[in-house]
What we know:
This protein is an alpha/beta fold. The protein folds into three domains: 11-258, Rossmann fold (3-Layer(aba) Sandwich), CATH 3.40.50.620; 270-339 and 469-544, CATH 2.40.240.10; 344-458, CATH 2.40.240.10. Helix content is 24%, strand content 24%. It has twelve helices and 27 strands. The chain has helices at residues 10-20, 41-56, 76-87, 103-115, 126-132, 150-161, 211-222, 237-246, 270-278, 293-299, 303-313, 324-335, and strands at 28-31, 60-65, 96-98, 119-122, 171-174, 189-193, 207-209, 226-230, 254-258, 261-263, 320-322, 341-342, 344-345, 348-353, 362-367, 377-382, 385-389, 409-412, 417-425, 431-439, 456-457, 460-461, 466-473, 497-505, 517-520, 524-528, 538-544. The relative contact order is 0.10. Bound molecules: adenosine-5'-triphosphate and magnesium ion.
Amino acid sequence: MEKEVVSKNFIEQIIEKDLAEGKYETICTRFPPEPNGYLHIGHAKSILLNYGLSQEYNGKFNLRFDDTNPTKEKIEFVESIKADVKWLGADWEDRLFFASNYFDQMYEAAIKLIKKGKAFVCDLTAEQIREYRGTLTEPGKNSPYRDRSVEENLDLFERMKNGEFEDGTKVLRAKIDMASPNINMRDPVIYRVAHMTHHNTGDKWCIYPMYDFAHPIEDAIEGVTHSICTLEFEDHRPLYDWVVRELEYPYPPKQIEFAKLYLTNVVTGKRYIKRLVEEGIVDGWDDPRLVSIAALRRRGFTPESIKMFVELCGVSKANSSVDYAMLEYCIREDLKLKRSRVMAILDPVKLIIDNYPEGQIEELEAPNNMENETLGTRKVPFGKELYIEREDFMVEPPKKYKRLYPGNEVRLMNAYFVTCVGYDTDEEGNVTAVHCTYDPASKGGNSPDGRKVKGTIHWVSAQDNVQAEVRLYENIIDEEKGVYNEDGSLNLNPNSLTVLKNCYVEKSLKDAKAYDSFQFVRNGFFCVDAKDSKEDALVFNRIVSLKSSFKLPK
Ligand code: ATP
Ligand code: MG
């Protein structure tokens, strides 16, 4: 059998080299969210990348909450993040960790550096530290406290820990090189005094480690081998390497950076979304117009579609934006053979079949998915009065119009041929009902005598159906026009949400549950809204329409 040759991405190449050279026996990756907000599509990329690599190389995958910063964390985000990671299918098994559980080891690590003469307590203020740091073109200056003895540093650091000093009066700094061309290496602060209560450790600590010091230690403690992060940390890598080297870990983890995922016409920034939520423009972090993972799930995206999307995006070192249409392409691809194609009328007008027996109801058989017979068939009630889409009837049709107009014959999907014989209007001339006659010999929508009809339209029984609300979405911002107006207000798309209250769906959807999704013939893919849908008041979100001009990039 011929094997497909798939070229490996740059991260896979690094891993394969490390394994071949025996640098690590097996690999371990991690997803390290700060519990300070909801996850979004960009995080999904990171989750699936890290988890995917652990699966590909038979390694391990850790979910680690990076909760070392007591100001920002909110415990409520832990559960939502876990739910999102699980939903995406990234299984951390029993490897769930909290960085705050390592505070003792981090403290010990700092002592080790002090003892090696590689860290010192500094009394400069934050502003002075900034001044001493120099610029991109000028080297920094040594702190006057840089040459404190090991004993003095140990004593002061312990007293920092014991709470003897006010916030901001003392820090612990790594002793590296104030002349380094990389500013991150100019004696970076690794511990600060902060009298704050931590959600996990309470008041035990009044010193907290800085991210650049804490993160490599967390990785090393957990046995992470490849610590994958986004590009903005590239300049921090020398410090990461310095920390794991000076702390003499036997299997030092290595940091690898990749480009963040950006989507066109979509904003993922926490600040922006917070504002949309606070101003009541969206109904929460899971509003279906957003791209938090919770929002995508509520809109009706599947884990498979997001995985396909992330794989199509690939990993690279160059920042770029991906077209939102590619995400839509993925959900269409995922659902098209998996979901039933049912009939729903979003903008109804009545169709009356004048020659159909009064009071008669037939149960007609309809295939669930013409392209996938394994989905079987269902029964759809048919009667004298139906609903059709308003746009499927025209009094004076344009030339190529193939649907209903006076005198024209069309096929009612899975039902009969009907010919339009007239219509009713109200005082203003709006069409209130369309009249037709049917050909009983065309049952099932099959031509009885070889005569052809050009149009097929969908319908829902007016007597036996389910009334529903349907919500249609567009992007909430038009990125090309900018996120903000000149006065600082948000530049929103006024059509981002359209609510249709008077829709009719087939009876077969009566028991549809939250997150169930369907193709509504001609109208797109729809999903039962998990927040607002009720047993007798169904609400559907349009996930995506059926057509797109999007082409897969080569
Ligand atoms: P912030 O730093 O503003 O709190 P964040 O988005 O960086 O937010 P983290 O919780 O720090 O949130 O991120 C967890 C992981 O997700 C990190 O490894 C980060 O690199 C990765 N990540 C965040 N945004 C993206 C993105 N757009 N594309 C890919 N990975 C991302
Ligand atoms: Mg972050």
